[in-house]
Design a protein that fits this description.
alpha/beta; Arylsulfatase, C-terminal domain; four-stranded antiparallel beta sheet; 10 helices; 16 strands; 27% helix; binds calcium ion
Length: 438
């Protein structure tokens, strides 16, 4: 190396270090310009399956990094199954809005209709590049297809679960490929978590200077579990470790591309685990599993990061519903819309300590496997619960009884009446009505 090259290299290195230095300083400065949106959704992960929420079976330093560098929403709610939660997340409404409260099976005619409200359409209207990478599960006919619902790019699968390696699902005894690049069926080789991670990083690289809305929707850790040998094979632990590593690579790519400072990152699971073991998969400290409106089915460890806007390492105990995520994300991005939502902009819950949410969160779900309607209202620390099979209305104080073990309905008739009235008002907001609380 001659002297001139040496000086050039030194100058470049100095520039790099000063850039890194300024990046570190800028990390807690409010972002300027467009705000990108990255939703990371995982599938059937139990509430207790992160290092930050209890498990010591393995470590999830990368997922937990989002909470360490942002806010952890301790009382965040989803629906107890994939389709319902994803419909609510994408539309800003309870899943009943489009009749998507139950799990869709392959070939179902149900799904998001043409003309449905969709997060992708909202962001696209503001010039964002929109992409869904991973699982869809809110309809597989032409109108419901991700590309028809506003996503510029779709890479992933349409149905409820896929084989991690073959990307097939058993449909009436036939292993059927369900993997797409937009409208084209593709037989891409690879492990889904790795494929989705790589695709997400490639999308970030391409959209470094243009605003994007990316929904990164991993099928992990949904059954049927399969994992790389070097991670320990087909165990929940290995699937979670690859998932955490993948999310770490995406966060590292945001750093490398200087996108961390202006990207809202949200992490959530779509419903609780179908198993509630002493070790992962576990919904501890809650009772219940996927497919139930018990806390184990519907509480999610949601975390969000936007440096300079969301205080680092903060925690929020206020209630947040997945149908609030779209209006909240639009607000974080400083975007306006003429679309109205059932969900509300809850940005201040994420950013400002002391903000409260007194609104009731109302649920109705038919537990297909066990039969019977279930209803629930969560309002501050109270939860009213009804299950058709036993015909009982129960009241729980979640602040002292997160496992919903002690029914306080008899001692609190006024609270029961208040929450029933909240639920009935919510049910009557649909046409036709969702009924009345028994
Ligand atoms: Ca799920």
């Amino acid at each position: 190396m001659n002297r001139r090259d040496f000086l050039k290299t030194t100058a470049a290195a100095t520039g790099l270090f000063s850039l890194l230095g300024s990046h570190r300083i800028l990390a807690d400065t409010a972002p300027t310009g467009s705000i990108n949106i990255l939703w990371i959704v995982v599938d059937d992960m139990g509430f207790g399956d992160l290092s930050s929420t209890g498990t010591s079976t393995y470590s999830t330093p990368n997922i937990d990094r989002i909470g360490r560098e942002g806010v952890t929403m301790e009382n965040s709610y989803v629906y107890p199954v994939c389709t319902a939660t994803r419909a609510a997340m994408l539309t800003g409404y309870s899943p009943q809005k489009y009749g998507l409260q139950a799990v869709l099976l392959p070939g179902s005619s149900a799904g998001l209709p043409a003309g449905a409200i969709s997060a992708a359409k909202e962001f696209k209207a503001h010039g964002y590049h929109t992409a869904l990478i991973g699982k869809w599960h809110i309809g597989d006919d032409a109108d419901a297809h991700p590309n028809a619902q506003g996503f510029d790019d779709f890479f992933g699968f349409l149905w409820g679960e896929t084989d991690y390696y073959t990307h097939t699902k058993d449909v009436s005894g036939v292993d059927t490929l369900d993997f797409y690049q937009n409208g084209t069926l593709v037989d891409t080789k690879g492990y889904t978590t790795d494929l989705f991670t790589s695709k997400a990083i490639s999308l970030l690289e391409k959209n470094q200077s243009a605003p994007f809305f990316l929904c990164l929707s991993y099928n992990a850790p949904h059954y049927y579990l399969a994992g790389p040998t070097e991670y320990g094979g087909d165990t929940y632990k290995s699937v979670m470790r690859v998932l955490d590593d993948g999310i770490g690579k995406v966060l590292d790519a945001l750093d490398r591309l200087d996108l961390t400072k202006n990207t809202l990152v949200v992490f959530t699971t779509d419903n609780g685990s179908p198993y509630n073991n002493p070790t992962p998969p576990t919904n501890a400290p809650f009772s219940g599993i996927k497919n139930m409106l018990k806390e184990g089915g519907i509480r999610t460890p949601l975390m969000a990061r936007l440096p300079g806007i969301i205080p680092r390492g903060s925690r929020c105990k206020e209630n947040f519903a997945i149908w609030d995520l779209l209006p909240t994300s639009l607000n974080f991005a400083n975007l306006t819309t003429s679309t109205s939502f059932e969900g509300k902009n809850r940005k201040s819950l994420f950013t400002t300590q002391g903000t409260t949410n007194d609104d009731p969160l109302c649920f109705k779900y038919n537990a297909q496997a066990s039969g019977g309607d279930t209803r629930a209202v969560v309002k501050r620390n109270w939860k009213l619960f009804y299950y058709e099979t036993d015909g009982l209305t129960k009241l729980f104080d979640l602040s002292s009884d997160p496992a919903e073990s002690t029914d306080l309905a008899g001692a609190n008739p006024d609270k029961v009446a208040e929450l029933k009235a909240d639920w009935n008002a919510w049910a009557a907001s649909f046409s036709p009505s969702q009924g009345t609380w028994p």
